[in-house]
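Subject: for your reference before the review

Hello V.,

The reviewers asked for a structural picture of the protein, and I figured it would be easier to keep everything in one thread rather than splitting it across files. Below is the amino acid sequence we used in the manuscript, unchanged from the supplementary table.
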Amino acid sequence: MASHLLVLIVFSTLVSVVFAMLLREDRKARVRFALMTFGAFVLSAVVVGWLMYPFPS
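And here is what came back from the structure prediction:
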């Protein structure tokens, strides 16, 4: 069974690449945008998970 972190990284990578292809024109801007959105996805998910940790399930 895959870990949640691995699934998060795969999902973030795929969505970031698709968003970059759709929203940016040149290669340099696409790469920068993909890296920024990837970082935003992963960082926000980790922060939200950390904030939810103290609450009972």
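For the response letter, the relevant points are probably these. The mean pLDDT is 94. DSSP finds two helices and no strands in the chain.

Happy to draft the paragraph if you're swamped.

O.
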